[in-house]
Design brief:
It is a multi-pass membrane protein. It is found in: Cell outer membrane. One of its GO terms (cellular component) is cell outer membrane. With 989 residues, this protein is mainly beta. It contains ten helices and 51 strands. It has a 22-stranded antiparallel β-barrel. The chain has a five-stranded mixed sheet with strand order 10-15-16-13-14. A hairpin with a 4-residue loop joins β34 and β35.
Length: 989
């Protein structure tokens, strides 16, 4: 029997024939990557760079030829073994589609403001973080990066900050809401990114979309022979800018001058140094060789009814500063199955991030050696400071050497979707999606010392005299259940796309932290003492129930209309205020589709307008009720008691924040759309913002208030953002061998606080120094959020001190004389992306910049007035009797505690810059070589990120970032940006 089956199989195999041919389009260009499939089987392949294919099939088989944007063809195999196919363009499929909320839509029928970034643009940005690839590419999207820190998160703000809570947009990855933003994504996995910027585009997400929406679609497999892709790169990073610091000789001379100006004696180490030959370049000691490895592999394919795609990614980034690094591991599976009226798709991604956090870039005194004569870490006494009473000169590298610390995060995100095609154009879709995140932070510092007494015993004041451990863990889990009913129908020129749905979301958060000292010297917590340690924990959950509907209508692709409504009910509010309604309406007119429109130059003219309302509930789940926690110790009658305190006052009147947005857009195309122009004007007004008011103690209630977090919330504030956005693209195949694709975008933004509400004081950022309480920014009506606030300077007095202006003419200078000095919002931001290809070479250049913003250079306090660190060489040009033509005041120890160092226009600098963000040159190996090595594609490239920056800013980098809304543009960073050189390859077979 076995022999019989074997014979039958051999006969069938012998009857198979090899079919070869070429697939081209109507312009006789090869269709690369077209699917060629034996119908009814999983036997298939794809065409190569010349559109050629070869496939063994059974006698009488039917071949199915397909490719996105072209009509599918089926050809029955006859005696002829060479089948050439010309695929005709599918007018409907060739309509560029973009991903929108809960679906896709033809770009020509869009009436909202949606920006798209393709995978081609993403992978050429030479960045390990997906969010940074959007910088300068999309008008109205602001990217805030934390300099060159390894594994640093990137913040996105769409059309200006407008809430006093979170400013990040909603992130949706393949239909699943992401709690981790884009930091967990592998750039190689992404097919496209869509940014929903206005109310009409984002209103379908209702209360979660006040800050805009970012939709990420990952790559999926295609029917045909499996395709294996491997991408790898090696990079190394160098600082873009390091300030010039004083050397040891300059420091001793400078320190003695400061002592003379301050009326104190010279420090012993500055007159008779213990280590006279020491000249430590601490900046050089902190910087290390910083390589970065990136490797990605994927396999994708499918049969007639199913597709799959699986990918693995690994990133290993060494930080530019010592004892810092970042690793990321990615795994993703996407698959789909369709049989008759039923289809099923799933996607799941697992990411693990392991980071050794970067510490401050501390520049100690150049007169301090790193090691003593016995090779031990060295700390100097107070004698190294200008004023020996100012403290102890600690070794700042020793803690990094001895401390074990890490941040580990594991993210799991995925969705499963089932769909039934019920009737002509009517479909039902069920989706379950979820996102789980687990974080673990750990720090262990053993007992160590960096200074020894004359008798050889360690000095307890230098180093860490006790073993200490701190550890925290957190968990977040969110799941969403969606039920959707869609209807899509075209008849007699009318096109209807309708959607109704429900959504149920639950979110859970749990965290715990523990810290203790003197724990037996071990690396694990084995005991706990309430005297030497502390513990905290939290547990919360919330729910959101939603109903929504949307209707898109167009007539002959000329007249466009869209409307949506969403009803959200959130458990974060008291029962009487839990429901919010978020409507939108938009319309458009494709004038170029009119029969009377005939213009040899203008090939496209589209006008659109929209209005939408979005919501926000940036609250903890229990803000509407009072919460007590403790313990708080107190003594009464000689007896010690403990009690709780109110974290929040009960506020059951809290309701939704609402963002009301209006957008007017114009889209133009010229020369058969080789040149396109898009213009948008928007107004975004956020009302009922949640702000915190001062307590009314006349109520008779007494509360312990330790931070603004404990003040009650009220819906009282409002903010307005207005702006223009311009996008120009020119794309042309100029000759057979040369093509160009150039995109220029520019955007303006005006941000204004309209009101804070009754009893709400202006909001200030934190104090710029522990030595005095003045804040460098303020948020108040009539000004931008986080405007810089300080004293005007009217020159110097006879002793070289700043003369602060008496702006209120009161006869004396005090805090009432502080004025607005500028704000961090640019007059305009811009980006220019230029891609050219010539034969097998391609060149990508990307330039980006901002104009007209101010930066509050808070690092000037550290480098001019805080003499526990080294100073920049500019201090040598400070005011003296013989040098009065300067803008730097006299150097004296009193500067540390205020006076000349108070917030003033001395810290304000122009933040404008122009930067070559990315430059990449690639080479695609020709088919003659690929055929010999059995590759479909092989590309090698070299590139550099942050090649150069043109700016007048004196700090590390003008691209100043802060995670705190009210501190934006305040440069307190101690870390340079990175210039990254990359060498890599892309291969598929």
């Amino acid at each position: 029997m076995t022999l019989f089956c074997l014979c039958v199989s051999m006969i069938a195999l012998a009857q198979q024939k090899t079919i070869t041919g070429t697939v081209i389009d109507t312009r006789h260009e090869p269709v690369i990557g077209a699917s060629v499939l034996e119908k009814g089987t999983s036997n298939g392949t794809i065409t190569n760079l010349d559109g050629e294919y070869s496939l063994k099939v059974s006698p009488g088989a039917t071949l199915v030829f397909s490719y996105i944007g072209y009509k599918t063809q089926e050809i029955r195999v006859s005696a002829n073994t060479n089948i050439n196919v010309t695929l005709a363009e599918d007018a409907e499929q060739l309509q560029e589609v973009v991903v929108v909320g809960y679906g896709v839509q033809k770009k020509s029928s869009l009436t909202g403001s949606v920006a798209s970034v393709s995978s081609k643009e993403i992978v050429k940005q030479l960045s390990s973080n997906v969010a940074s690839t959007l910088q300068g590419r999309t008008p109205g999207v602001d990217i805030l990066q934390q300099a060159g820190v390894a594994g640093a998160d990137v913040n996105i703000i769409i059309r200006g900050a407008a809430s006093f809570g979170a400013t990040e947009p909603l992130y949706v990855i393949d239909g699943a809401f992401s709690n981790s933003g884009l930091s967990s994504l592998n750039p190689n996995d992404i097919e496209s990114i869509e940014v929903l910027k206005d109310g009409a585009a984002a209103a379908i997400y209702g209360s979660r979309a006040a800050n805009g929406v970012v939709l990420i679609t990952t790559k999926r497999g295609k029917s045909g022979k499996p395709v294996i892709e491997i991408d790898g790169s090696y990079a190394f990073q160098t600082p873009t800018n390091i300030p010039d610091f004083l050397n040891a000789t300059q420091w001793r001379e400078f320190a003695n001058n400061v002592a003379d100006n301050s009326g104190i004696a010279h420090a012993p180490e500055n007159d008779n140094p213990t280590y006279p030959d020491t000249n430590t370049d601490w900046a050089k000691e902190w910087i290390q060789y910083a390589p970065m490895w990136n490797l990605n592999a994927s396999i994708s394919g499918g049969g007639e009814n199913s597709t799959f795609s699986t990918s693995l990614g690994y990133l290993d980034q060494t930080g530019m500063t010592i004892y810092s690094d970042y690793k990321r591991y990615n795994f993703r599976v996407n698959s789909s199955y369709k049989k008759g009226i039923f289809s099923l798709s799933e996607n799941i991604a697992i990411t693990h991030r392991d980071k050794t956090p970067t510490t401050a870039f501390n520049i100690s005194l150049p007169t301090l050696p790193i090691y003593d004569s016995e090779g031990r870490f060295f700390s100097g006494g107070g004698d190294y400071y200008i004023n020996p009473e100012d403290g102890k000169a600690q070794n700042k590298i020793a803690p990094l050497h001895y401390t074990d610390r890490y941040n580990k995060v594991t993210d799991i995100i995925g969705a499963i979707t089932a769909q039934l095609d019920l009737w002509d154009g009517l479909k039902y879709k069920f989706s379950f999606s979820g996102n789980y995140s687990n974080s673990h932070n750990y720090t262990h510092t053993p007992e160590y010392y960096t200074k020894w007494n004359e008798d050889g015993t360690p000095d307890q004041d230098y180093g860490s005299p006790k073993n200490s451990i701190s550890e925290s863990r957190g968990e977040e889990f969110t799941y969403t259940i969606d039920n959707l009913l869609t209807y899509n129908k075209t008849f007699s020129g009318h096109s209807i796309d309708a959607l109704v749905g429900t959504s149920w979301m639950r979110e859970y958060n749990r965290s715990m932290s523990l810290a203790t000292i003197n724990d037996l010297g071990g690396t694990k917590i084995t005991g706990f003492s309430s005297v030497d340690g502390k513990i905290s924990a939290s547990d919360s959950n919330a729910a959101l129930l939603s109903f929504f509907a949307r209707l898109n209508y167009d007539y002959k692709d000329r007249y466009l209309l869209s409307a949506s409504i969403r009803r959200d009910e959130s458990s974060k509010f008291y029962k009487d205020n839990r429901v919010g309604y978020f409507p939108s309406v938009s319309a458009g007119w494709n004038a170029h589709q009119e029969s009377w429109f005939a213009n040899p130059v203008v090939s496209k003219l589209k006008i659109r307008a929209s209005y939408g309302e979005l919501g926000a509930n940036f609250l903890s789940p229990y803000n509407f009720d009072a919460i007590a926690y403790g313990p708080i110790p107190y003594t009464l009658g000689g007896v010690r008691y403990t009690s709780g305190r109110a974290a929040y006052l009960k506020s059951r009147e809290l309701k939704w924040e609402t963002a009301k947005t209006t957008d007017i857009g114009l889209e133009l195309g010229f020369l058969n759309n080789d040149l396109t122009v898009q213009v948008d004007y928007f107004v975004k007004k956020n009302v009922d913002l949640l702000a915190q008011i001062d307590l009314n103690l006349s109520s008779g209630q007494i509360f312990e208030i330790n931070s603004s977090r404990e003040k009650p919330y009220v819906n009282s504030a409002s903010v307005k953002n207005t702006g223009w956005e311009f996008l120009v693209n020119y794309r042309k195949q100029l000759t057979k061998d040369f093509s160009i694709d150039a995109t220029l975008n520019l955007s303006t933004l005006k941000n204004e606080v309209l009101s804070l509400g009754d009893n709400v004081q202006p909001i200030t950022s934190g104090a710029m120094s522990s030595s005095f309480s003045d804040s460098p920014s303020i948020t108040k009506p009539g000004e931008a959020i986080g405007s810089f606030y300080g004293y005007k300077i009217n020159g110097f007095d006879a002793d070289g001190n700043f003369i602060f202006a008496d702006t209120d003419n009161s006869g004396s200078v005090d805090a009432n004389d502080k004025v607005i000095l500028g704000n961090p919002i640019p007059d305009f931001s811009y980006g220019l992306n230029l891609t050219m290809s010539y034969k097998d070479f391609d060149l990508t250049m990307f330039f980006q910049g901002v104009q007209g913003n101010e930066i509050f250079n808070q690092k000037k306090y550290t480098y001019y007035f805080d003499y526990s660190n080294n100073c920049v060489t500019d201090v040598l040009n400070a005011w003296t009797k013989n040098n009065q033509n300067t803008n730097i005041p006299i150097m004296k120890t009193q500067n540390t505690d205020g006076g000349n160092s108070l917030p003033s226009e001395f810290y304000i600098e122009d933040g404008s810059y122009f930067r070559c963000k990315n430059l990449q040159l690639g080479y695609n190996f020709p088919k003659s070589i690929l055929n010999k090595i059995s590759f479909n594609k092989l590309r090698v490239y070299a590139g550099v990120q942050n090649l150069f920056t043109i700016t007048n800013y004196s700090g590390y980098d003008p691209e100043v970032s802060s995670n705190a809304l009210f501190s934006r543009g305040i440069d307190s960073a101690s870390y340079p940006n990175a210039r990254t050189f990359t060498f890599g390859f892309n291969a598929s077979f």
